[in-house]
Design a protein that fits this description.
- The protein has one helix spanning 2-63.
- By secondary structure, the protein is an all-alpha fold.
- The radius of gyration is 28 Å and the shape is rod-shaped.
- The termini are far apart.
- The relative contact order is 0.05.
- The mean pLDDT is 88.
């Protein structure tokens, strides 16, 4: 009977560890998603600024 209790305790510990790992993974997935969204927004804004600068430079060059 004692070995059965030890096995059940080991299974309970393993399951609680699995739940803890799953919770950390969920946090990382949310963090990575928001970081990726911020990165995409940053690149998009930088590209728009680059386009604006190019258009202004092209316009300035045409007026000379």
């Amino acid at each position: 009977m004692e070995i059965r209790i030890q096995i059940l305790c080991a299974l309970a510990l393993a399951f609680s560890s699995l739940l803890a790992v799953a919770a950390e993974l969920a946090k990382l997935e949310k963090s990575a998603a928001s970081t990726w969204d911020a990165t995409k927004t940053g690149f998009s804004n930088a590209y728009e600024d680059l386009q604006d600068s190019h258009e202004k430079a092209a316009t300035a060059r045409k007026t000379k």
